[in-house]
Design brief:
70% of the residues lie in helices and 0% in strands. It is built from twelve helices and no strands. α6 crosses α7. The N and C termini lie far apart (82 Å).
């Protein structure tokens, strides 16, 4: 019987050791690494790929250190229920915290949500406000969405020159996006006097 217990113990020990060796310890992301993941919209996928090992570290950096990139990540995790219990209201709270600290991706995402009614009711005034701030921070997604919103008659014509200037200076390697920007610039130009368009080309906002 003793031999049997020993055999069981040995088997469990070997199994535990094998599991420990198989488990790869994941290092917490640097701020720049996380920002790159967010810009590529890979942040939630990375948390899942890392087998949810960093949940406590992410929460601590969001709630205690109040790092905007981690507030954004934590907010998204809560809103979509990734590796944590889903809590949309709390998730939006942390997204707004990140946006309030000037994180362009947070501003763009909230603007997009208010534009399409994701998690919140459609509110064009809030959508434009968030997107304008993100556009000023050179967030191309926000600039493009804002131009599409202006093209549909929302917003103030007084804001057209600034957005035209921003899009005129936008840089992208994506041919499809480049063509989209060119089309939006033409539409914006049609809404302004030629002298205003020419001024916007040489004025950086």
């Amino acid at each position: 019987m003793k031999l049997s217990y020993f055999s069981i113990f040995l088997s469990l020990f070997i199994s535990f050791q094998s599991s420990a060796e198989a488990l790869t310890v994941v290092q917490i992301y640097t701020d720049n690494e996380l920002l790159d993941l967010i810009k590529e919209n890979k942040h939630l996928g990375q948390v899942v790929l890392d087998e949810c090992q960093l949940v406590q570290d992410i929460e601590a950096r969001a709630t205690k250190s109040q790092m905007p990139s981690y507030q954004f990540l934590w907010g998204d995790m809560l809103a979509y229920g990734v590796c944590v219990k889903k809590d949309v209201e709390l998730g939006l709270h942390y997204m707004k915290e990140a946006a309030d600290q000037g994180l362009a991706e947070g501003l763009e995402q909230l603007g997009r949500y208010y534009h399409v009614g994701k998690f919140v009711q459609v509110d064009m005034d809030k959508a434009i406000r968030y997107l304008k701030e993100a556009a000023t921070l050179k967030n191309l997604k926000a600039q493009i969405r804002l131009a599409e919103i202006y093209d549909k008659g929302f917003g103030s014509p007084l804001d057209y020159p600034a957005l035209y200037s921003q899009l005129h200076r936008a840089v992208t390697e994506d041919k499809k996006v480049h063509k989209q920007i060119s089309t939006l610039l033409l539409k914006l130009a049609d809404k302004m006097p030629e002298r205003v368009v020419n001024a916007a080309k040489v004025t950086e906002y």
